[in-house]
């Protein structure tokens, strides 16, 4: 089975009722690839979750931006996984770098949150990523591997996990990892999953990219064989989010079993412009 392209829109702490209506109207009127090609999830602030869910087209879904690490109770200001389930919100973002940095969420705490959300039936977009200092020191893979390990230590079933690689230095800065930089990290993450979790999970888990993704750079990024979609910040509040969703047609990835996979590049008309066989991580010398 191919890894279906995934496009998430993280609205962060933005929006008024009228602004939200305008964004949803744009999405509802957009002509985009079908659900068979791309899974689209938008993540408004908690106060707008039900409002967006009630207005949004049925082929798009809604995510919360965070949830608490255990069952609700005397935790002022927190949102429990059970509350999200009660509202029929299917997805939640966990471990975003802004929460790691500003609210001091540790790798272990994020791992616990991912595990608890999954245990309550939520699907999770789990965020990882390095700072500029860590990248410049050559520590990128050590950092993201440690972040991923903290999740893998608590999670046994990865069916409802999307891993979002978001280099901190590229979030909201206008800087973006080059397609080659993104592909290198995604490939190494898939290799890590193969060696430390399982080859099957490495092959099936979607690893998406986030960090100043926009309508201008999404096509090149989408064409990378290990980039399975995007988690979009500022651009998800703008009409260009539709262009980012459409970039899903540029990438189709088909696992061929234990030995290899086929990556097929398609143009916007669905015509193949490239195809190549890629060895599975467990069979490469990377």
TrEMBL record:
Pfam families: TIM. Pathway: Carbohydrate biosynthesis. Keywords: Isomerase. Transmembrane segments: none annotated. PROSITE patterns: TIM_1, TIM_2. The keyword Isomerase applies. Gene3D superfamilies: Aldolase class I. Belongs to the triosephosphate isomerase family. Homodimer. PANTHER family: OS01G0841600 PROTEIN, TRIOSEPHOSPHATE ISOMERASE. HAMAP family: TIM_B. This is Triosephosphate isomerase.
């Amino acid at each position: 089975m191919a890894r279906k392209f995934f496009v998430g829109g993280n609205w962060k702490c933005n929006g008024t009722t009228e602004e939200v209506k305008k964004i949803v109207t744009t999405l509802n009127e957009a002509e985009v690839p079908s659900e068979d090609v791309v899974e689209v999830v938008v993540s408004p602030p908690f106060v707008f979750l039900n409002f967006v869910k009630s207005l949004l087209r049925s082929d798009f879904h809604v995510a919360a931006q965070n949830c608490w690490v255990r069952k609700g109770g005397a935790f002022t200001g927190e949102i429990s996984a059970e509350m999200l389930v009660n509202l029929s919100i299917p997805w939640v973002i966990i471990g975003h770098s802004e929460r790691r940095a500003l609210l001091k969420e540790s790798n272990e705490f994020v791992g616990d949150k991912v595990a608890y959300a999954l245990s309550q039936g939520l699907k999770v977009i789990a965020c990882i990523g390095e700072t500029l200092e860590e990248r410049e020191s050559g520590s990128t893979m050590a950092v993201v591997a440690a972040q991923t390990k903290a999740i893998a230590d608590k999670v046994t079933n990865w069916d409802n996990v999307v891993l979002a690689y978001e280099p901190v230095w590229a979030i909201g800065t206008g800087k973006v990892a080059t397609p080659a930089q993104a592909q290198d990290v995604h490939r190494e993450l898939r290799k890590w999953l193969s060696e430390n979790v399982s080859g099957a999970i490495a092959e099936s888990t979607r690893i998406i990219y986030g960090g100043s993704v926009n309508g201008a750079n999404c096509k090149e990024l989408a064409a990378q064989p290990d980039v399975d979609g995007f988690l979009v910040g500022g651009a998800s509040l703008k009409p260009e989010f539709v262009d980012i969703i459409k970039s899903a047609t540029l990438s189709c990835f088909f696992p061929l079993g234990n030995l290899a996979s086929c990556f097929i590049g398609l143009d916007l008309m669905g015509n193949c412009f490239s195809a190549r066989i890629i060895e599975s991580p467990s069979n490469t010398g990377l």
